[in-house]
Amino acid sequence: MAGMITFTMIKPDAVRNGHTGKILDQIISNGFQIRAMKYVHLSEAKAGEFYAVHRERPFFKDLVEFMTSGPIVAAVLEKDNAVADFRTLIGATNPAEAAEGTIRNLYAKSIDANAIHGSDSDENAAIEASFFFSAFERF
Ligand code: GDP
Questions:
Q1: Where are the domains of the chain?
Q2: What burial letters (b/e) apply to 24-50, b meaning 16+ CB within 10 Å?
């Protein structure tokens, strides 16, 4: 079912600051259905593996350090046009550039502590969902 699912993580800053409930509410009220969800504290190895594509980037070490700084909420979301619609809902990577009312505009403080992750393609959504969850027969 191409285009129906995306993967998200509510990042450590947003969980730490008590924004999990409001963010989930915004996700659900924008038409996404939660198909899997997990509260987890990533190890350095797992965070490095998840962000392996950024391994050569100057911010990689900071990114792994931040993503292991506290628990996250990982989830698989279902909706028509899930990947693109969710990227619109979360806003630009840099919260200073995120549109008014987007999740990053409302809850993120900086480009590294940017509150939430959303997959950038259908292919990556499937890879990222499988990274955290094993049962995807339904998708
Ligand atoms: P996303 O798809 O919007 O999450 O953005 P990217 O895939 O480009 O980057 C992945 C994550 O790396 C972002 O969500 C940020 O948390 C982090 N990141 C990206 N650019 C920077 C940067 O310039 N500095 C730092 N510290 N983190 C960054």
A1: 5-136
A2: bebbeeeebeebbeeeeebeeebbbeb
